[in-house]
Write a structure and sequence with these properties.
globular; alpha/beta; 13% strand; 249 residues; KR_dom; oxidoreductase; NADP-dependent 3-hydroxy acid dehydrogenase YdfG; Rossmann fold
Amino acid sequence: MTFDIQNKTVLVTGANRGIGKAILEEALQRGAAKVYAAVRNLDSATALVTQHGDRVVPVRLDLDDAASITAAAGTASDVDVVVNNAGVMRTVSALASNAIETLQFEIDANVYGLIRVAQAFAPVLKSNGGGAFVQLNSIASIKTFPQFATYCASKAASYSITQGLRESLKDQGTAVVSVHPGPIKTDMGDAAGFEDVAESPTLVATAIFDAIAEGHFHAWPDSLATQIGGAYESFANNVVEADMEEGVV
């Protein structure tokens, strides 16, 4: 399914900085009529409103707070595209003493948060004609790096949920995009030690809206992601995106 965001309404979680801010700005550049900046702290979106005026509307949304997500869906009842960008990451190996605690923290935001957003906004997208739902996953969704194994596990789970959403939302006409960046220049990337190899967040924003426009499920934005995506392409085409009867394993 393809979708044109011209004159449409977009919501971006974690829109106040990094990749989220780049996504918001790309949506406006491509002609979106309005972008909801979904953030935990409304004051963090003040600069975006100052810069872009009433085309940016702040709305409170915290992935850990189901009530805030439900309320945001009520406020953004005119939304056509939801981009779930927000997430968390800690640098913890599977053998660390706090690995289970860390995994619980990451799962709550990166997986349960995704499910909460999808459940709240799927009916809204349906009522507005289908639109698109975008999930920021990672190359870590398909390749585990031992120094942050718990994060990789949470992103593998979010990718699995995203695949399910692709099928679940198909009948209501909602396109789903799974985005898999590599190291990106953000606060999270810097904290993980990617300063020397990280690439621009604008690559992610561009890849997202290209995928929506062209009807692609997977998006591989940067150099490392493109390399991994190329190696993964056959499996993605023949297994992940293939129509299979239930019960086939």
